[in-house]
Design a protein that fits this description.
The chain has helices at about 50-55, 110-125, 140-150; strands spanning about 5-10, 15-20, 20-25, 60-70, 70-80, 95-100, 130-135, 155-160, 165-170. A hairpin with a 2-residue loop joins strand 8 and strand 9. Helices cover about 20% and strands about 40% of the residues. The chain is an alpha+beta fold. The chain has one domain (about 5-130): Aminopeptidase (3-Layer(aba) Sandwich), CATH 3.40.630.30. A 9-stranded mixed sheet has the order 1-2-3-4-5-6-7-9-8. Pfam families: Acetyltransf_1. Its EC number is 2.3.-.-.
Length: about 170
Amino acid sequence: MVRLGEIYRGGEGYMVLADEIILKEATIADAVLFENYQLKETPYTVKPMTAMTDSLHETKKFPVLILKEETLVGFFILQKEKGFSTYPTEENALLLHAHSIDERFQNKGYGKLSMERLPLFIKENFDSIDEIVLAVDYDNLSGQMLYLKTGFVDTKKRSKEDGAYKFIYSKKI
């Protein structure tokens, strides 16, 4: 049995086991998990399948599942060599986007826990990465608080995407 906090080398990449969640790179076989994912799409959120298909033509994109046992509780995408016009990412950085938690599991700490565990997941799966970059909407206060509480800092850069202004946050790992 793998103990909490240990790394398990799975067939499709590493999984980080910690405090009831597993971060795992998604594969085609995981598509069935998205069928019951409950999330009202808002200006801040997008369902996992939509996030993955919106950018099928893009490369160096790594969809990540947030699992509690075998249940999908959340999702996000990590992407290399993509940034914002006002804050291009360097080769040593990953862009985090499409972070969401299934409505049935919100307000239980999974969003925070996934962001706290993310640096270890990245270190185990991406050798040369030492920074995570993301954009969060000006009026998405809960998102801003989540990222700030988990070690992201405001870069003081701003981006306008899809008609909305966003803060650019960064976290060194």
